[in-house]
Structure formats: structure tokens, C-alpha cells
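Take a record.
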Amino acid sequence: MAYRIYLVDDDRFLVDLYAVKFRTAGHEVGVFSSGEELLAALRKADAKMPNVILLDLVMPGIGGFGALEAIRKEHLAQGSKVVILTNQGQDSDIEKAKKLLADGYVIKASAIPSEVFAETIRTIESRTPPVGGPR
């Protein structure tokens, strides 16, 4: 089954790397370099919602937590999973992601692209609620 995947990261090299991996497997990929770009796309009346958003935390302007807070507050991307994909591995960041009901948390430096790919597909296909409770 093909999925729609949104990649949100200001690191162009990593975005291109992951985009190629997902597209080669037959998935549709949307690429955004900031939280503002993501939110603008999700707020469009005719927006096609992704199955999953892979969201970096550290970006210029609205970072990942700001984007995730807006998604939750404005009820954007209903039915979409959100996976934090970042190099920020502090316990406080992981706890904040849980409070914002992120569906997953992957530390980029600890995961090769094939692991990110596998974790993303597993998260999409998972029927369990995010860590921290139901939405």
C-alpha cells in the first residue's frame, strides 16, 4: 500500500535522502523546510492529509514542537501520525513529545535510513494510541 509522507526538516541532504527512500518504495512524499511551510499546507481547505508527518524539532522559525502544538490546538492533520525525527535526545524533549501525543520519536544519529523507513511504516500501520494516551 502506498502512503503519503510529509518530511519536515531544514537539513536538505537528509530530506532528500529520506524522500528518495520513500519514493523508491512507491510512497508519495511532501517536503517542507520549516514548521511554517508545514502548517500552511495543512491549513489549506483542499489539503490532502498525510498518513504520517516526520518532524524535526530544531528548525528556523517555527520548530517541531511549535508546529506540533499548532497541529493539536487547531485539530490539523486529523488521522495523521506524527513521528519526531531529530537529534535531540534529552529526556525533557521526549517527555514533551509524549505530552503532545507524538506517535513516535526517532533520534536521527542513532538510526540508519532503513530503520527510519521501517519505523515510519510500522507507525503508520499501528493501531495503538500514541505514548501518553489516546487522542
Confidence is low (pLDDT under 50) at residues 131-135.
